[in-house]
Structure formats: structure tokens, C-alpha cells
Amino acid sequence: MNDLRNGIQGMGYGVLPMLAGIAELIGRGITALIAGHERSYFIACMASPMAWIIASALLIFMFFYVMKNMDGKLNRKSGDSDF
């Protein structure tokens, strides 16, 4: 997860990894609320793994979005050359 986050940030998209962090926080919060309502220790223990799954899914989607964007930028630049 950190590799995707750092890679996306390194390509100049700093807001997208921050959104993944917010999704991670929301995932933990929702799981904690469910755990409290159900009075389940097991669900409380699953808050972090659930947050990682949510953030990873979002980061994978963002990665493909960034790669498509970067591919478009590179194709436009290479189309302008006289070679």
C-alpha cells in the first residue's frame, strides 16, 4: 500500500494519496462504530485490516487513473517531435 501511495505522490499527484488516507480513516471509523454497536471484539480487531483493504482498493484505482493520465501526456509529447 505504501508503495502505491508513494509512487502516486512521486508522479506529482499529492492529493490522491491524501484521499486514500482519509478513506482509511473513514473505514476504521465505520468498522469501530459497527464493532461498538455489535459489542464485538473481533470486529474491533478487524478495523485496521478493513481500513487497509479500503485504502488499497482506492489506491489501485488511483494508480490506473494516474498511469492512463501519464500515458496520455507522454503520447502528446512524443507526437510533437519531428522524428
Q: How many individual helices?
A: 4
Strand portion: under 5%
Question: Which geometry do the CA atoms define?
Answer: rod-shaped
Main β-sheet, in a few words? none
The count of strands amounts to 0
This entry's quaternary arrangement is: single chain
Listing every helix as H and every strand as E from the N terminus to the C terminus, the arrangement reads HHHH
The span between the termini is 39 Å
Describe the structure.
The chain has helices at 2-10, 15-38, 41-45, 47-79. It is mostly helical. The protein has one domain (2-77). The longest helix has 33 residues, at 47-79. The protein starts with a helix and ends with a helix. The mean pLDDT is 88.
List keywords for this structure.
83 residues; mainly alpha; 0% strand; rod-shaped
A few lines on this structure:
The protein is an all-alpha fold and 83 residues long. The chain is 86% helix and 0% strand.
List the helices and strands and how they pair.
Elements: H1 2-10, H2 15-38, H3 41-45, H4 47-79
Helix pairs in contact: 1-2, 1-4, 2-4
